[in-house]
Amino acid sequence: MLSSLSVIESADMLKRYLMACLAGGVLFIIYLLLKTSSFAIGSVPKAVVTRTEDSNVMSKTGSLFDEPATTTTEVDINLYSIRNPHLGPLFNISHDNIINFKHYPYWNSSFTFRQNSNWKNSTCTESLQKKAFTSKDFGQIFRPDIQMLINSDLFDVNEYRRLKRWTIPYGYEYRGRSIMYEEVGDTLKMFPSEDSIFKVSREGQTDCISCAVVGNGGILNGSRMGKEIDEHDFVFRVNQAYTRGYEDDVGSRTTHFVFFDRSLTLMKLEHYPVGQNITYIFVPCREADYSYLRTIGNGTNVFKAPPENVRVIHPDFMRYVHFVWMRVDSFRPTTGGIMTMVALHACDKLSLYGMGYNYKYSNHYFDTRYQEFLPVLLSHDHTREIKLWDTLDKEGIVYWYRRDVF
Ligand SMILES: *[C@@H]1O[C@H](CO)[C@@H](O)[C@H](O)[C@H]1NC(C)=O
Ligand SMILES: *[C@@H]1O[C@H](CO)[C@@H](O)[C@H](O)[C@H]1NC(C)=O
Ligand SMILES: *[C@@H]1O[C@H](CO)[C@@H](O)[C@H](O)[C@H]1NC(C)=O
Ligand SMILES: *[C@@H]1O[C@H](CO)[C@@H](O)[C@H](O)[C@H]1NC(C)=O
Ligand SMILES: *[C@@H]1O[C@H](CO)[C@@H](O)[C@H](O)[C@H]1NC(C)=O
Ligand SMILES: *[C@@H]1O[C@H](CO)[C@@H](O)[C@H](O)[C@H]1NC(C)=O
């Protein structure tokens, strides 16, 4: 076992780090790398990173949740008493067995979530929902009726007040101040008031919806999984979702693209996933993400995602995924992890490809030479995510393409 402690200072190393984790703006990084010779689940090296852009949202005390901002947006008190007819009821998930980070402020209310009153359970007899509801590990926490998307119908001053206390992406705190009510509201108004990631309603539908979630893992290089991936009803992709030139391995169809403001930074314009048939699922992670979204809404962004196809992830869904499923002390799940959770809570049959990291393969399937995956644990906990995919697969809830590793 090799153990090394190094301070990354050179621009080269810094660039490599950016490529590896898309964290962006890594300033001072100290990482401890523990390398093992096996490629098993537990072999993701432990990395300690003192500061990344994502983890900047952590307060000085190291909490994921900043203290509430001292200045609050003044709101018309009359608005407060108007009941929003679009909002479903709130529900709690028992957190007696979820022991991590009890010291966080708002711990108790962190387990209260908005229900989607339009949600219909699947009537597909083979649905993963049936297995998940009765699962020993996940039966108590699987709530596909949670409000997954937020839109302007579901956003009002009460809802803003309820959500404001948590740090983005779990709410609207960012670096000790609140993202303004108007800022969120005006952004959401640019996109349709849809509460499903599918254009068809569940109601009266007996067909089973099959989904493929395609991560960017190097495990797909040479996999020839393209045809199998394309055969699913829906194909989810994330970040730099290259397909052209990689069809044999990753397929060519994209129906859902999951992204945040820096997803496409390293991608050439001609490879951007753009199309009228693609649903764009946005994960707001920083304050800047709202102005990024507005440039998509008003067509001034170079990324020409049709605004009518854009959906925004609900802060409650993010909090549910993070606290209830991931239960880890990192900033947020990976964007690929969020994509998987979205599909798990919407599809009847789910297959995961290119998910999880492994040193046998390069970081990404599109790398031109081998690039080692470098985890940034303050931002994401990849080990926990790999464990989740493994357990979901072993319980037959999802299919996880493992190739010759994991
Ligand atoms: C959820 O739990 C909180 C306290 O933990 C309680 O105040 C609230 O009434 C509960 N809400 C629901 C909908 O059960
Ligand atoms: C939070 O929940 C715990 C039980 O999980 C309870 O003992 C405690 O009183 C609650 N705190 C508040 C402020 O509601
Ligand atoms: C969906 O099914 C679960 C498990 O049978 C049940 O607990 C839940 O109430 C159902 N939800 C809806 C909206 O019908
Ligand atoms: C978009 O979807 C429609 C309806 O399913 C289909 O007819 C059309 O060929 C699709 N367009 C592209 C570019 O895939
Ligand atoms: C589009 O939105 C951005 C972000 O809010 C704004 O800066 C820009 O002026 C807008 N452009 C147009 C043409 O509306
Ligand atoms: C992708 O696979 C090919 C053939 O298996 C191999 O030669 C190449 O080095 C791989 N690419 C990377 C970036 O690992």
From TrEMBL:
Superkingdom is: Eukaryota
Which coarse location class describes where this protein primarily resides? Answer: Golgi
**How does the protein associate with the membrane?**
Single-pass type II membrane protein
Catalytic activity, as annotated: a 3-O-[N-acetyl-alpha-neuraminyl-(2->3)-beta-D-galactosyl-(1->3)-N-acetyl-alpha-D-galactosaminyl]-L-threonyl-[protein] + CMP-N-acetyl-beta-neuraminate = a 3-O-{alpha-Neu5Ac-(2->3)-beta-D-Gal-(1->3)-[alpha-Neu5Ac-(2->6)]-alpha-D-GalNAc}-L-threonyl-[protein] + CMP + H(+); a 3-O-[N-acetyl-alpha-D-galactosaminyl]-L-threonyl-[protein] + CMP-N-acetyl-beta-neuraminate = a 3-O-[N-acetyl-alpha-neuraminosyl-(2->6)-N-acetyl-alpha-D-galactosaminyl]-L-threonyl-[protein] + CMP + H(+); a beta-D-galactosyl-(1->3)-N-acetyl-alpha-D-galactosaminyl derivative + CMP-N-acetyl-beta-neuraminate = a beta-D-galactosyl-(1->3)-[N-acetyl-alpha-neuraminyl-(2->6)]-N-acetyl-alpha-D-galactosaminyl derivative + CMP + H(+)
Membrane spanning residue stretches: 16-34
Q: Which family does it belong to?
A: Belongs to the glycosyltransferase 29 family.
Q: What is this protein called?
A: alpha-N-acetylgalactosaminide alpha-2,6-sialyltransferase
The species is Branchiostoma floridae
